[in-house]
């Protein structure tokens, strides 16, 4: 079904929506249901999770046809993304699919004045990218009456912008990139995907939790929205050699008692946490929280396969006084993070689940803690290997949803290293940009 062209005007972009259609699995699958479990439900009040991939290429129409054809095939395995949220007779949330549903929403658009370089040269925020990604400000709970996946394919002067909005109550980052790489595999000519998704969520947790949820007022229209501080977003790229320096420094004084060395993730996270805390100019006694949404596939008992499709993450929180973090050498912050991650074993996960099931608390995306640095995504996701047959992406970014002061996404860098995409209050960001130690320029 085509829609009237709509112009969306950003600062640098004039994006014109040219059509909206839907894609369903290529073959009939009948009716399917899948209960949402304790790992999924807390994300109902988050916003759709947004990703943007930019590709070079001059045959937009061919690219779109190939993407749609491949999507129909890959949805045979990932049919849940073509469904909707629903509730069973007991009020337990689930994913519902049948062949009559709309499927995945595909929005076609054009921004002929924009080149790929216009969108990649600027390491600043997402405001100029916002018009390229659908479902800005849409809550996951709206998946009761909207598609669980929407994809906007925007024609650029010399390429294609692929903006994706995934319902976060249905899948986490690991599942998102499993789906994206499987879709790319089909588009490159494979007749089937190499790793089918593991769809049995209740194998990870089978407790049925009834939630009585209705949509809260839209935070974008009520008076409170004006109270939210403005944020700046920026991507800092740490090359492999800078990562090695950060890691070497933090591991230089390991005690000889067989202590585990700090991982790349722990070293880089501690580096960012420490320098953001410094840039915030906190009082020494002010508490700062570090939060990581940790993958629990190998932590639960029994362990789940990497191909588990759904959410199998939990937020791990750890905190210290800002003065302590800055007074001690970098390994102090790394050890606080390492300890919190190591303690989050099968027993801790089970206790957290039972506690939540006894008194379900629906988090909002910004409930990550005071003076927080929170990590989403992971440099382990092979985001630059999502090649649909016309080459690797020129850039991979997150959208504007689920951002708050201190939210950080870690991505594999295009040419190695790690991209740190972070949102901060403008004054904090300005001080961080001038911090030579943070940038490893000193």
UniProtKB/TrEMBL annotation:
Transferase recorded as keyword: yes
A GO molecular function held by the record: acyltransferase activity
Keywords: Acyltransferase, Transferase
Pfam families: Transferase
InterPro entries for the chain: CAT-like_dom_sf (IPR023213), Sec_Metabolite_Acyltrans (IPR051283)
Stated family: Belongs to the plant acyltransferase family.
Protein name: BAHD acyltransferase
């Amino acid at each position: 079904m085509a829609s009237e062209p709509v112009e969306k005007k950003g600062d640098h972009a004039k994006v014109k929506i040219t059509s909206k259609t839907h894609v369903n699995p290529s073959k009939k699958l009948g009716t399917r249901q899948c209960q949402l479990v304790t790992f999924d439900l807390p994300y109902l009040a988050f916003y759709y999770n947004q990703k943007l991939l930019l590709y070079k290429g001059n045959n937009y129409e061919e690219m779109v046809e190939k993407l749609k054809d491949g999507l129909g095939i890959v949805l045979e395995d990932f049919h849940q993304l073509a469904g909707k949220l629903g509730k069973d007779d007991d009020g337990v949330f689930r994913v519902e699919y049948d062949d009559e549903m709309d499927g995945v929403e595909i929005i076609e658009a054009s921004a002929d004045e924009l080149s790929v370089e216009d969108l990649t040269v600027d390491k600043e925020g997402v405001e100029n990218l916002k018009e390229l990604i659908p479902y800005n400000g849409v809550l996951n709970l709206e998946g009761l009456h909207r598609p669980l996946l929407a994809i906007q394919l925007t024609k650029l002067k010399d390429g294609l912008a692929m903006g994706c909005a995934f319902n976060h109550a249905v899948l986490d980052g690991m599942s998102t990139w499993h789906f994206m790489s499987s879709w790319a595999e089909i588009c490159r000519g494979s007749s089937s995907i190499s790793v089918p998704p593991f769809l049995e969520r209740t194998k990870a947790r089978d407790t049925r939790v009834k939630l009585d949820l209705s949509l809260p007022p839209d935070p974008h229209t009520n008076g409170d929205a004006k109270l939210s501080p403005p944020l700046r977003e920026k991507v800092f790229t740490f090359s492999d050699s800078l990562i090695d320096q950060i890691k070497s420094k933090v591991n230089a004084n390991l005690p000889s008692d067989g202590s585990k060395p700090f991982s790349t993730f722990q070293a880089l996270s501690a580096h960012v946490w420490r320098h953001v805390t410094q840039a915030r100019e906190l009082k020494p006694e002010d508490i700062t929280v570090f939060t990581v949404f940790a993958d629990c596939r190998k932590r639960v008992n029994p362990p789940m396969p990497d191909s588990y499709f759904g959410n199998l993450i939990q937020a791990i929180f750890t905190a210290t006084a800002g003065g302590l973090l800055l007074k001690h050498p970098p390994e102090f912050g790394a050890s606080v993070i390492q300890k919190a991650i190591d303690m989050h074993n099968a027993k801790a996960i089970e206790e957290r689940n039972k506690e939540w099931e006894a008194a379900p608390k629906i988090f909002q995306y910004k409930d990550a803690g005071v003076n927080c640095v929170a990590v989403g995504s992971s440099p382990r996701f092979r985001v630059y290997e999502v090649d649909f047959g016309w080459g690797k992406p020129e850039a991979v970014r997150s959208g504007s949803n689920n951002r708050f002061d201190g939210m950080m996404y870690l991505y594999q860098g295009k040419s190695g290293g790690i991209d740190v995409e972070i949102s901060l209050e403008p004054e904090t960001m300005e001080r961080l940009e001038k911090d030579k130690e943070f940038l490893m320029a000193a």
